[in-house]
Design brief:
single chain; about 475 residues; alpha/beta; Aspartate Aminotransferase, domain 2; seven-stranded mixed β-sheet; 16 helices; Putative lyase; PyrdxlP-dep_Trfase; lyase; PyrdxlP-dep_Trfase_major
């Protein structure tokens, strides 16, 4: 790559050619991973703002004071929307995972008298919480969810808390099925126990306030619940901003302070960081601020209204297809669908999603967990409205086609995979994963293999794939 300089037109032409490898965005976006208002002006204001701030580094507050003003305005807007007290505060991070990391660090370092800290969270919490626990040396105590509602089991949460618990994590909503955990009840418990409660609203924090104003029955989940000490909320999802913009919000400055890092005992300049990164691209913050300012309250009200309408259209369509069902009762713009193999017209889940893939519909499978069947996930936005009716019909066609097919992998082979000992080595896992590939790429068979593997080996198999990819 490092060679003599190349003219700009040639550079951009090569980049455009590489970008063609990515999922088709404008023609028919997939049901996950993409957040698009459909407004050209949003992309324009973002790119112009980023260009204006492309060389701005928020690390140097005295040199670039404007970025701190932008950050404070976004934090204040989010806290006001989530009914925070006047002395609430927060920080801009580079994404939901960093917000989660910071909330975990603040809880851990705010309880330094606890030498073996743990956090309690339901299995429906986002995977990034386990990553934060892994990075920061906090034990993650995983609890069950209700098998009908998929909400956190209150009794299980309470039973898992002990004298070493630094905080509890709940979601509004949780990613998998789009339902809101019982935050009021557990918030009261956390307040009584004197431990923090973080609400992960990374994917719902910019939806639920507008849904509530539109008359939706949304249980209390934000700072109106006295036990809620912090909330993580992304702008880069349903705030429709560029990637690289999330917020971690705190009820008080005292709760936030342990999040920070400061160091003066070295030969360079005294340094203080609010988040993991020191240098950060100010253009990301400027672009996000500009998008939020441009869309505004009225724009978000419309986008949420459309997202909820399309989710209801999906629910109604699924209800009319024997053999499919929505999981739980979605309360935001997320949903999950699974097959019912025991129904009169039931079908194997993986055969069904394979038929969807053959029809060029990009899906995100969610694997089996104890008491939770496999499903496909939907992150619904206005962009999906124009073809939801088509997709509902495709789901029906795929189901009919799947009923006529033989299993993707013989039952005997799946049983062998499921029976693999947990001490199976990385080297032994690699060929098992690779045999499921088609044309050198992961396929529906790959998801089926992952689903069949014993839980510890699932992650090893994923690492094997990612190692080969990179």
């Amino acid at each position: 790559m490092l060679e003599n300089g190349v003219p700009i037109d040639q550079v951009l032409a090569e980049l455009a050619e590489r970008h063609r490898m990515d999922d088709p965005y404008a023609d028919r976006p997939g049901m996950v991973n993409m957040y698009n208002t459909g407004l050209d002006t949003v992309e324009k204001v973002a790119t112009d703002a980023f260009g204006m701030y492309i060389h701005v580094n928020p690390l140097y507050s005295s040199t670039f004071p404007s970025v701190y003003a932008l950050e404070k305005e976004l934090v204040r807007a989010a806290n006001d929307m989530l009914h925070a007290p006047n002395d609430a505060t927060g920080s801009w991070t580079m994404g939901g995972s960093e917000s989660i990391m910071m909330a975990t660090k603040a809880a851990r370092d705010g309880a330094k008298h606890i030498t073996r800290p743990n956090m309690v969270l339901p299995i429906s919490a986002h995977a990034a919480w386990w990553k934060a626990a892994h990075y920061l040396g906090v034990e993650a105590r995983t609890t069950t969810v209700d098998p009908e509602t998929y909400k956190a089991d209150v009794a299980a949460i309470k039973a898992a808390v002990d004298e070493n618990t630094i905080f509890v994590v709940l979601s509004a909503p949780q990613y998998g099925q789009g339902v809101i955990d019982p935050i009021e009840e557990i918030g009261k418990f956390c307040l009584e126990q004197g431990i923090r409660l973080n609400v992960d609203a990374c994917i719902g924090g910019w939806v639920l306030p507008f849904a509530e104003r539109q008359g939706c029955e949304i249980p209390l989940w934000d700072f109106r619940v006295p036990g809620v000490s912090s909330i993580t909320v992304d702008l880069q999802k349903y705030g429709y901003t560029n990637k690289g913009c999330s917020l971690v919000l705190y009820r008080t400055r005292e709760l936030r302070l342990p999040q920070f890092f400061a160091h003066a005992n070295w030969t360079g300049y005294p340094i203080v960081n609010s988040t993991v990164m020191s240098s950060k691209p100010g253009g990301l913050l400027a672009a996000a601020w500009s998008i939020v300012k441009h869309i505004g309250d009225d724009g978000y009200m419309h986008l949420v209204e459309e997202g909820l309408r399309i989710r209801r259209e999906l629910e109604a369509g699924v209800a009319a297809i024997p053999g499919l069902r929505i999981m739980g009762k979605p309360e935001s713009t997320l949903a999950a669908i699974t097959t019912d193999p025991d129904a009169d017209e039931g079908v194997d889940f993986f055969l069904w999603i394979d038929e969807l893939a053959k029809r060029n519909w990009t899906m995100q499978p969610q694997l089996t967990q104890p008491g939770v069947p496999p499903s496909i996930h939907f992150t619904i936005a206005k962009q999906h409205g124009s073809y939801m009716a088509e997709f509902i019909e495709v789901m029906r066609e795929a189901l009919d086609a799947a009923r006529l097919r033989d299993p993707l992998i013989p039952a005997e082979r799946l049983a062998e995979i499921h029976a693999l000992p947990t001490d199976t080595t990385f080297a032994d896992i690699v060929p098992i994963v690779m045999e499921s590939f088609e044309d050198g790429k992961p396929s529906t068979k790959t998801h089926l293999v992952l689903d069949a593997l014993p839980m510890p080996l699932r992650e090893m198999a994923m690492l094997a794939y990612f190692d080969a990819l990179t």
